[in-house]
What does this fold into?
Amino acid sequence: MESHLQTQLHTTNSEDETIELGKHFAERLHIGDIVAFYGGLGAGKTEFVKGICEHFHVPDIVSSPTFTIMNQYDGTDSDGDDVKLYHVDLYRINSQREFDDIGFDDCMFTNNAIKLVEWAEKANGHMPKKRYSVKFILDDKDENKRTIEITKSEQ
Ligand SMILES: Nc1ncnc2c1ncn2[C@@H]1O[C@H](COP(=O)(O)OP(=O)(O)OP(=O)(O)O)[C@@H](O)[C@H]1O
Ligand SMILES: [Mg+2]
It folds into this structure.
């Protein structure tokens, strides 16, 4: 049975606030965790990922891996220990064959990295239930406002 242990609602009013929220959120992440991002084009998923990567001292420029599908970053945690992060963008993935080709299922069950998945709505049935879900809701009136819902689910 799926149980939502915890849902948090946040509001951000700029790209920088979303990066800051991602950075703060990352404090709770451990190697092996999955974070699934939901929300349309330009919602702010990659900005949030930038914040997570900042927390883990990733030196690379973080961008949407839309064309490469999957990026790998090497960072460190607050103890200075190595942390590997996989950043996946499923926007262009449309068939089972394509999920197989990128080795998505293997990636999800890898326990040696933190896994960040944009366009997680594409991965129905491929995503372990135990994960964080980060959902972006845009505002009708304010183009810089985002409501960001963070849920942790187990099993
Ligand atoms: N509050 C906000 N939080 C995040 N981004 C914002 C906010 N307000 C405006 N923006 C703008 O929205 C855009 C978000 O882009 P981002 O690449 O993070 O989207 P995305 O959800 O990853 O989209 P895609 O599906 O194309 O990868 C940026 O251009 C950013 O400047
Ligand atoms: Mg993106």
In short: The chain has one domain: 15-123.
